[in-house]
Design goal:
With 207 residues, the protein is α/β, with parallel strands linked by helices. The protein folds into two domains: 152 residues, 3-Layer(aba) Sandwich (Ribosomal Protein L4, Chain: A), CATH 3.40.1370.10; 50 residues, no CATH class. A hairpin with a 5-residue loop joins strand 1 and strand 2. It has a six-stranded mixed sheet with strand order 2-1-3-6-4-5, sandwiched between helices. It is built from seven helices and six strands; from the N terminus they run E-E-H-H-H-E-H-E-H-E-H-E-H. Helix 2 crosses helix 3 and helix 4 crosses helix 5.
Length: 207
């Protein structure tokens, strides 16, 4: 078990909590982290570019003019690429960019990303993150007190509009629920801020 600090929003240590080795004590495998990033980014890609080849052009098929006697080069069909509204040669078609990765590998990669945050002391466990009202100024102060300099992903156990809306306009800050925790967001942000109740749900989900 890993002994870790639980703090309040003023960055004062309240107590210590034990973290599961199965979730937060994994060996750091850079190859696995690289693969999960590629997997997630590929899953987000969409392929909508598409053009029609000469066989897909509606109508067409007839000769634009007779074979001989016009002085022009002979042409077989108006759907040929050299004609206006003709087919496109080697044009783009919808593609599948997805990368295959086993479910157990994705699970291990998420555990590895969490372990990296713990090893780097970039995870902050808060007793709670209750805000009296929606206030970007108060949220910025809390993040400043916690030592968040660049970016952070905040993980909550349940939706909280006061927290989400307060953090919405702060660059580099994202708010997600336990169900949305993923390796890419953890690696893309410098700090991981998680409430104690959300931490328990993460352990239950991944242990």
């Amino acid at each position: 078990m890993i002994d870790y600090s639980v703090k309040d929003v003023a960055n004062q240590e309240l107590r210590r909590v034990e973290l599961s080795d199965a979730v937060f004590g994994r060996k750091i495998r850079k190859d696995l982290l690289s693969r999960i990033v590629s997997y997630q980014l590929a899953s987000r890609r969409s392929s909508i570019a598409a053009t029609k080849g000469r066989s897909e052009i509606r109508g067409g098929g007839h000769k634009p003019y007779r074979q001989k006697g016009t002085g022009n080069a002979r042409q077989g069909t108006v759907s040929a690429p050299q004609f206006r509204s003709g087919g496109v040669v080697f044009g783009p078609k919808p593609r599948d960019f997805s990368v295959k990765m086993l479910k157990k590998e994705r699970r291990l990669a998420l555990q590895t990303a969490l372990s990296l945050k713990v090893n780097s002391e970039e995870m902050i466990v808060l007793e709670n993150l209750n805000m009296e009202s929606i206030s970007t100024k108060n949220m910025a102060k809390i993040l400043g007190d916690l030592g968040v300099a660049k970016s952070a992903v905040i993980v909550l156990d349940q939706a909280d509009d006061k927290v989400s809306l307060s953090a919405r306009n702060i660059p580099g800050i994202s708010v997600i629920l336990v169900e949305g925790v993923n390796a890419y967001d953890l690696l893309a942000h410098e700090n991981l801020i998680v409430t104690e109740s959300a931490l328990k749900k993460i352990e239950e989900k991944l242990a």
